[in-house]
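Regression test attached.
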Amino acid sequence: MTFLSSLISGISLGSVYAIIALGYTMVYGIAKMLNFAHGDVIMVGAYVCYFAFNSFGLPWYIGVLLSMIICTILGVVIEKLAYKPLRAAASLAVLITAIGVSYFLQNAALLLWSSSPKSFPQKFFNIGGKSGFTIFDGKLEISYTILVTIICCVVIMIALTLFTEKTKLGKAMRAVSENKEAAQLMGINVNRTISITFAIGSGLAAIAGVLLCSAYPILQPTTGSMPGIKAFTAAVFGGIGSIPGAFLGGLLLGILESFTKFYLSTQLADAIVFGILIVMLLIKPTGLLGKKIMEKV
Amino acid sequence: MKKLLRKDNIKNLSSYILVIVAFVVCQILIGAKAMPSMYQSLLIPVCVYIVMALSLNLTVGILGELSLGHAGFMSVGAFTGVAIALALKEVITATWLLLAVAMVCGAIMAAIFGVIIGIPVLRLKGDYLAIVTLAFGEIIKSLFTNLYMGIDPEGGFHIGLITKPEDLVEGSKMLINGSIGISGVQKISTFTAGFILIIISLIIIFNTVKSRTGRAIMAIRDNRIAAECVGINITKYKMTAFVLSAAIAGAAGALYSLNYSTISATKFDFNTSILILVFVVLGGQGNMIGSIIAAAVLTILPEALRQFADYRMLVYAIVLILIMLATNNPTLKMFFDKIKKAIRFKKKEEAKEDM
Amino acid sequence: MEIKDKAKMIPIPSSGILNENDIGKQPILECINLGIEFGGLKAVDNFNLTIGRTEIAGLIGPNGAGKTTIFNLLTKVYQPTHGTILLDGKDTHNMNTVQVSRAGIARTFQNIRLFSNMSVEDNVKVAMNNSMNYSLAEGILRLPRYWGQEKKAHNKAIELLDFMGMADVADVKAGSLPYGAQRRIEIVRALATDPKLLLLDEPAAGMNPSETEELMHNIKKIRDEFQIAVMLIEHDMNLVMGICEGICVINFGKVLAKGTPEQIASNPAVIEAYLGSSDD
């Protein structure tokens, strides 16, 4: 049963990574920038939900909704103030600005909410007073949090795919990510499209924040960093810029991490996971589903 | 002789002069007891971060590849340096020599890691390369947090991963103690050593850039395919730059660690790598004097902002964003360029009037 | 020096491309059934060509005919999927771009590829990298070998730049120069590798008639001075007809015609596919 339970917890962790990675990959695809502040938006989302639930006693769905709204606004504001003025700048300059934003969010959170860890309500997704259910005659317990996380991830994945394939706005996003100038000439409002991408990415970050803290209930200003870095590697692993790639990369990374912890070593899990990632990138240098770009001579 | 006064020569020369003048001024201030102890304690870290920024600038500015794991090399240098210093404490009694040996060993070990990491890393491009450097940085951190190393009374080394080595006999001494790291370090780093390390790093970097190796490295940065077509071996020169950068960072790591009584791997995490990258980008890619100034100012700034207490890191973040906007936004950049031009024009006019 | 003397003895083939038996001595380049496929598409197919040691050869054809692809095959930027390239009689099958460069092929690029953040002189010196052999340590410590070889390289770079009338911009950043000057520097850089065969990809693109005139003169001068072969891709027919001794016309990746400028100009198939279409 350890295999099954570690697989399930891996899928659950991977689902969270996948949702975060989607944010990274969409922004990268469209704005060609590594938004290092993405991980900290997750943290903000988790805090908002925590306060809505704990301090104001709002039901969980209101809390999630509220944190999505606030994160969406936050994402758009960050984009407008910090990234938009640098649209034409070198990518490294934008990267450093994103790091600045990340520092800003972490330290603002530190001032607002202090560094002492808050314990996120663990019985967040309880149904009928129970935190989970058992299968195989009680041999395998699955918590509702895990179930909700996996369902969320699948729903988001399907919704996003439909959105980019079917809707006008989604097509505009794909056009901008292919070629900004050409998209502009076709009458697509590039700036607005980029803003919307940030909005969607940040909204997803809020969900990821709530799910992450439901599973690992320690909330502090640095909560978002490590999952952020890992989701970022997952996005690259899957082929940065590719939505199915982010999904696949996140899921695989989560499963890999879970298996490593169960079977090999908890302490060295990070080293092993990153090691496997490096090996995979050497075999497929542009990620699992990334496009191979040939330089024209 | 006109050659000697070329723009880049002047720039290199002014870097040396800046470092020497700053060193002399600091020494005078220390001698006159005019430097607050807070700043005095910052002298060695400032030197270390300057060297780290210089070495990373070799990778980012000269080679043109983004590295997000530079602190990893610092870590390798730090642990090697401290372990060597502890092991050779009785053999080498002159602390300056012990420090020098520790730094050289740190550099060599970091260079070895540079080769091991460089082989896979340099096959990749752009963001993929960056992510793999990040991964290596995390792996090094993770390994060092779980590394145990002891030395038995006969001087034999025992190494264990995750758990303490089992074959340690009584009377053995633990050198590296897992997540606690190394404690009981003899603080032998000096400001003068830091100064010398900066000067050596500058000599290595400037002279490399002005040699055939440096030209080949920059050619790869500017146009890889053209470089190949004029017979430049891409892998060899990329590796040279990467390993050189790692070695210098290793020496800086050794200097850093021997300035504290304890050292743990978590000090050299992703945030440290990013911090150094910020120095490089703010100072200007390929601009060594810029790296020196940025590293010095940004290491001192958070301490100088102590009066703002909790707000200092927030202020730091805002300053960072504003500087990036001011130097990279086309509109703002044009505005600054206009001011610069106006000043230059005025100076020229004045010069004409003088004639 | 040996090569130069040897080359002088070899009569310049009047139409080296036309007839492979026409060359008395070892040709500098022989392509035999050369070809490359990109995912089923034959970009270059069954390409045969011979170039004499000191010949100026032209490679012409409509846009997309595969001209630059042939240059990319010769310099191993792309690996040919079939066929053989003999450079000075040696098979380049197992060579990569760097080795081909050392073996004696230098090129310029259709879309200029200078080291734009480096000075003009450094651009040229990069290409001399393989003629220097001081180590990195010698460079850092500035030992006598460094100074000696750097001085030599400097003199040679200035000499080559002077040859193309560019010595006065030696200290200027390459990327800041006007288009025509950048094209000339690319040629100087290629020459600095001491090539036996110089490939020029649209050297006159973007140049005005008087610049083109000067370029024609320079190409001839390069051949005469260095006794090397030059192969060029060009759309400017005045230039091609004016200086090329042999011309190869390709279309859809295949050789359409080979011959002297006179033969090409009067070849109906060529006029049909290429020359005619632009006039009508």
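Expected vs. actual: identical. Residues 98 and 187 of chain C are 18 Å apart (CA to CA).
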